[in-house]
Amino acid sequence: MLTTAGIHHITAIVNDPQVNFDFYTKVMGLRLVKKTVNFDRPEVYHLYFGNEAGDPGTIITFFPWQKLPKGRIGTGQVGTTSYVIPKGASSFWRNRLNQYSITYTIAARFAEEYIQFQDPDGLQIELVEREDAQNSKWETDEIKAEHAITGFAGATLYSAQPNLTVEVLESIFGMEFIEEEHGYLRYKTSGSLGNMIDIKITPSVRGLAGAGTIHHIAWRAKDDEEHEKWRELLEKNGYKPTEIKDRNYFKAIYFYEPGGILFEIATDPPGFAVDEYPEKIGEKLMLPPWLEQKRKEFEETLPHIKVH
User: Fold this and answer.
1) pTM
2) Strand 59-64 to 7-14 pairing
3) Residues 7, 193: contact at Cβ < 8 Å?
4) Half-sphere exposure of 280 (CA within 13 A, CB side)
5) In what residue span(s) does the VOC domain sit (predicted)?
6) Could you tell me how far CA 104 lies from the centroid of its own chain?
7) Total number of domains in the chain
8) What is the predicted pLDDT for the residue at 135?
9) Pseudo-torsion of CA 294, 280, 26, 146, nearest 10°?
10) 283 lies in a domain?
C-alpha cells in the first residue's frame, strides 16, 4: 500500500506581500526559500518559506493578492497550521508574541499544549513542543536554533464530510488512526515532520475562499515513480486527479477530497536548489523557463518586497 510521509507544503492566500514577508521571516523566523510567481496566474507572487533548505514538511507558501476580499475559515479548508518547536521553547515564544503585541491563547489537545494565534491576514497558527523536534539549522538575530521552528507539526482539517475525509486519509494515504478527543480525530503518518493530522468533527461554518484562508494542502510523494502510482490510485478510486503539473521544484497533482478540501500530492525532488545555489535561495525573483522572456514585465509590475 502507498503511504505518504506527511505534509509536503501548505499554501495560503494573503493580501500584502511585504506584510507577509515581514511576519514569516522576522516574527516566525522562517527562511524565504523561493520568490517566484504563481505559475497559473503569473501576475501574482508565489512566496515559499521554510527551513534552511526548504525541505518537505517545512514549507508554507503564499499567493499575495493585494485587493482580494477577505475569506472565511470554515469547512472545505485546512483550518489551522501547526508548527513544531523544540522542547522547552514555549516560554520563549510566549514572550516573543507579547513583544510583538500578538494576542495568543493556550489550548490542550491530545495531551499536547498549543500556543494559538493568528498571522496578520487572520490565518490560524499553532506552536507545539515535541520531544523529537530536531533543532533548526536556520537562525535569525533574534531566534536561535534552540528556540526556532523546526517545521510543521501537522494541520487541522475542517471537512464538510469528516467520515469521507477519513476514508481518503486511511485508504488512499495510508495514515494511521490514533484517537478521538473532544470533537477531533487524530491521524499519524510515517514522517518526522507534518505527521499529525487532526480532523475537526464538530459543526463549523462553510468556508469562503479569500485572503486569510488556506488554498490547499500538499502531501509528500518520494519520487516521480511513486507520484505516478498515486495518480493511478486516485483515478481507480474515482477521485478525478488533474494531470501531472511541473512546478519546477516538484511535480504536482490536485484533487478535491469529498469534504471539499483541495488536496495536492507533490514530489520531494528536485527541491528549491534546482535553479539557485543553496546558500542563495530566495534572494531574487526566479521564473520558470516558459516565463523568463517576461521577466522585465514582472519585475516592473509585481509589488516591490524589501528583503531584510
Assistant:
1) 0.96
2) parallel
3) yes
4) 7
5) 6-130, 151-268
6) 20
7) 1
8) 81
9) 150
10) yes
